[in-house]
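[INFO] parsing input record for PA2169 family four-helix-bundle protein
[DEBUG] input buffer:
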Amino acid sequence: MEITKANKEIVNILQELLQKNYDAEAGYKQIMQIADDEILKDWLKVKAKQRSQFANELDGLIRNLNGTPVTDGSLLGSAHRAWIDVKTTLSSNTDEAILEECIRGEEASVNEYEKQLEKVSNYSDVNNIIYNQLVSVKTALGTVKRLEDIAK
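[DEBUG] output buffer:
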């Protein structure tokens, strides 16, 4: 079945969010490997799993709209993970550097979700899922900011 013109814009929005979640999941898995603190490692593992769940939800929405979901993250996300490698290698406090990157990533996710949420307000099923994911990302941002305060 072919994707309708009306669905194409929504599918494109969902594709962008899907890529961002693939990037976030990969980023969390990457930095989990270099974190020292076990509590931080566990939190990163939970966040990676959550982003995988988000990706699955977005994948399902795209398929329901007769779209073909992307299968991996963005080139920009790969470049950012390479930058994290360099930064944490040079950092004297790896966990603090990890938390700073988590904050930066979550802030970018919040901004992206808020921007895209405005565009899907007329599609209740899509809007509800994106809104719920946004709330979870905002919660993660609050948590990682508290973790950073403790680590300092």
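[INFO] The chain has a mean pLDDT of 85.
[INFO] shutting down worker
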